[in-house]
Design goal:
With 427 residues, the chain is mainly beta. The protein contains six helices and 27 strands. β4 (59-61) and β5 form a beta hairpin. The relative contact order is 0.17.
Length: 427
Amino acid sequence: MNRLAVASGSAALVAALVTTGVALAGDDSDAVELYRTDLPPLATIDGVEISGGAYGSSLFPVPGSPDEYYGITDRGPNVDGPNDVKVEPIPDFTPAIGRFKLVDGKAELESTIPLRAADGTPYSGRLNSEASTGETIVDRDGKPLDPDPNGYDPEGLVALPDGTFWISDEYGPFITHFGADGRAIERVSPFNGGLPAELAHRAPNQGMEGLTVTPDGRTLVGMMQSALQQPDLAVEQDEVTVTRIVTYDLATKATHEHVYLLDDPKDNEGAVSEITALSSTEFVVDERDGDLGPGAHKKLFKIDLTGATDVQGRDVDGKSIEAHVGTKNTADAEKALDEAGIKPVSKDLFLDLDALITEAGVFNHDKIEGVAVRDGGRTVVISNGSDFGIDGVTNDTPPYQLKPKMLPDGTQDDGEFLKIDMTKLNG
């Protein structure tokens, strides 16, 4: 098990960091580096800036480049409004991929690739007309925004050596293949038989949060954010311990499905934000809550699919796996699965991000969403979901006034990247 021992020598190293991304002392001064985006706002509305640096929903190394990464936005700026509505202050926002170079403490945006349909129609962040979440989305004036067949909420990103991309989303869940120009090539989903049918029971806005590809380029591996909202589930969905991993063979289109046990979500309020491949069977999973540290649940786990049961289409005595396990703690959930003949993926702590961030005094974000690895996991880069720097509205009637999302240090949340040299932290 690979753990960050903050109580050991690594604590002194991490504590030496300053917010420029440069460590001041010791031979391991490059073990942790912070890179900030510094991009113009998308808009300024009544004095509140909407950040232009919100590309942290997922992260993937640029193939063939040692210091470049692709990031991606989610569906766009949106906040909770009164009466359970979502307010989108920029209704024509198009989700996009961003290519970043990490250098001298800066995350430099080199290019963007807006997502589009095959005919060139821009994607939007509106509800998808094929797979609604049940939300009502309005603009700042309170006008409802119609669902869109090209509505997409990107969350997982894979960049292939041929220049194309696979991107998963929360609405479907969908996994869509995009060309190098951002045009859609093909899409797989629970609705067209490309993905297991049970994934259509995803909870609203808790779809396929993570996506990666095995190093041999043969298999996509996607991960649901949390438990499925199965029809027979009689408990709170976000407290259920089970979530699912799906593999998709790019050549044969065959799928397999495995169980992942969250780390006591009833207590930790955690869910999955990312999965990234170490090998054809081993992966790093980002499990987090929505709180700021210290004391937040933000951990990376190393998992192994070897020997895990394929549960696609499977139930337990007529009940869904989610209903069978319910809100049991992780240890009891594993026992319940064992009694049913189901083996989940194995799971060990890889890195305690909250401990690292607390000691460093940098990168204290509520949403750590992107994780990329290099060199077999010796280098880890993480990114935050900044919510475009906005966090709700200040009034109950339109036109809605936006509230900035502020960090404990008094600054507005924006996109950042943190590079971690695991060999030095654990050395």
